[in-house]
Design goal:
Helix content is about 65%, strand content about 0%. It is globular, with a radius of gyration of 31 Å. It has 8 helices and no strands. The longest helix has 25 residues. The chain is an all-alpha fold and about 200 residues long. Helix 4 runs antiparallel to helix 5.
Length: about 200
């Protein structure tokens, strides 16, 4: 007496090699939900999830801070000396950037009241303040001890503490960036930047 393929399949608990049983996969509802969203739905979702707006008062405060940083940078740049475009002194480029900050700060104070999409200050805003503060310290130190050590420390602060990079990556990038700036501006372009070597 011979057994049928169905009987042998039931006895062994497996599937017949010539008649494999169909496999059933659970549908990916999350993927379809994302695909089904229209651009209007996504825009509405982003509108609900975005952080609270800063308001005009915060924009004015930001303008004051930016203008103050520009004024401080201008004073420090004048102390380094400006020179001329043909024969620039170390303070020329910091001076131009500082003047640009002053212009941007004044523009923000004049037109910032109508800007309503700026985010409210939070703990993440402290990282921006720390970055600006490190730039101010860098500007103050570069005329006293050269740019090598301040540039190295600035890279460490930005990469490790603000960028959350590993210590190994921070060390490699900090040394590499500082060396590249030295080779480019001091040796290749002969820019009169205060330096130790």
């Amino acid at each position: 007496m011979t057994s049928s393929p169905d009987a042998s399949r039931r006895a062994t608990g497996g599937s017949h090699p010539l008649h494999p049983e169909p496999t059933h996969q659970a549908p990916d509802h999350g993927h379809h939900l994302v695909d089904d969203l229209t651009p209007e739905d996504l825009a509405a979702q982003w509108e609900q999830e975005k952080p609270p707006a800063a308001g005009p008062g915060a924009n004015i405060a930001s303008a004051i801070v930016v203008t103050a940083i520009g004024i401080a940078g201008t004073v420090g740049s004048l102390g380094l000396g400006l020179g001329s475009p043909a024969d620039p002194e170390p303070g020329l480029w910091p001076f131009l950037i500082s003047v640009l900050l002053i212009v941007l700060g004044i523009a923000l104070a004049l037109f910032g009241r109508s800007v309503l999409d700026a985010e409210k200050f939070s703990r993440s805003s402290l990282q921006v303040a720390a970055g600006l503060g490190s730039l101010v310290v860098f500007t103050l130190l570069i005329g006293r001890i050269g740019f090598e050590i301040p540039a190295l420390l600035l890279n460490v602060i930005w990469l490790r503490f603000l960028g959350k990079e590993t210590w190994r990556m921070t060390a490699l990038l900090s040394v590499g960036i500082t060396a590249a700036f030295y080779l480019l501006f001091v040796l290749a372009l002969n820019v009169p930047i205060p330096h130790l070597f």
